[in-house]
Amino acid sequence: AQSVTQPDIHITVSEGASLELRCNYSYGATPYLFWYVQSPGQGLQLLLKYFSGDTLVQGIKGFEAEFKRSQSSFNLRKPSVHWSDAAEYFCAVGARSGGYNKLIFGAGTRLAVHP
Amino acid sequence: DVKVTQSSRYLVKRTGEKVFLECVQDMDHENMFWYRQDPGLGLRLIYFSYDVKMKEKGDIPEGYSVSREKKERFSLILESASTNQTSMYLCASSWGPGGIGSPLHFGNGTRLTVT
């Protein structure tokens, strides 16, 4: 069955430090992959997506992610974290399941940023 | 910018009540979705709709129903609210047939408490 795993529930980094959030997926075909961010009290906002082509994709707010088929991973990175990046981050895979198309979300990683 | 509006930010209801959660989108999107979000579980799909008067069950439809009489509006109905339906409910919409290729646009969520 299709699934998305985000191994880290909570991550704390210092402002200005680099960040990598991990995401592993299980899906037989070529996946559509997404990263969303949820700020406190808000809905989810799309950071970036991968459908095909260049495996390094750029998103909003200085984020990027790299698709590695051999590792079934789609890790999110940012070279220098800002305090406003504190939020919850969700990885998702677009998949066909149960006869229909849907997004399958990971459990999320909550990011805290120390000043 | 796409706007997805959920009618209530917070709701408190009693066990056994019939509850309506309303969602309206202003971008003429074909697809609309209802998710519930619980800590450690990420987002789980309750129901979705790819067209007016069309609805499909997601992964956790039990205890819920939906209505889509107009393209812009998608309502989630809790037929008889129970305490295990206390959760954050997120509505989303997207463009295009089929659903998995286009990003979801989310509302800010309705936090429902059933007492």
Q: What do these coordinates show?
A:
The complex is a heterodimer of chains A (115) and B (115). In chain A, the strands form 3 sheets. In chain A, strands 2, 5, 6, 10, 11 and 12 form a 6-stranded mixed β-sheet that branches. A 4-stranded antiparallel β-sheet of chain A has the order 3-9-8-7, with no helix packed on it. Chain A has 115 residues and is mostly beta strands. Chain A is built from no helices and 12 strands. Helices cover 0% and strands 57% of the residues of chain A. Chain B is 0% helix and 51% strand. In chain B, strands 2, 5, 6, 7, 10, 11 and 12 form a 7-stranded mixed β-sheet that branches. Chain B has a 3-stranded antiparallel β-sheet with strand order 3-9-8, with no helix packed on it. Chain B is globular and about 40 Å long. The termini of chain B are far apart. The chains are: A mainly beta (115), B mainly beta (115). Chain A binds chain B through residues 4, 9, 32, 34, 36, 41-46, 49, 51, 90, 94-96, 100-103, 105-108, and chain B through 4, 35, 40-45, 48, 56, 58, 90, 92, 98-101, 103-109.
In DSSP terms, counting alpha (H) and pi (I) runs of 4 or more, how many helices of chain A? 0
What integer is the average pLDDT of chain A? 92
- The fraction of residues in strands of chain B falls at over 45%
Shape, principal axes of CA atoms of chain A: globular
Strand content of chain A: over 45%
By DSSP, the count of extended strands of chain A is 12
Mean pLDDT score of chain B: 92
- Please name the two chains that share the biggest interface, counting residues whose Cβ lies under 8 Å from a Cβ on the partner chain: A-B, 25 and 24 residues
Biggest sheet overview of chain B:
7 strands, mixed
Order of helices and strands of chain B: EEEEEEEEEEEE
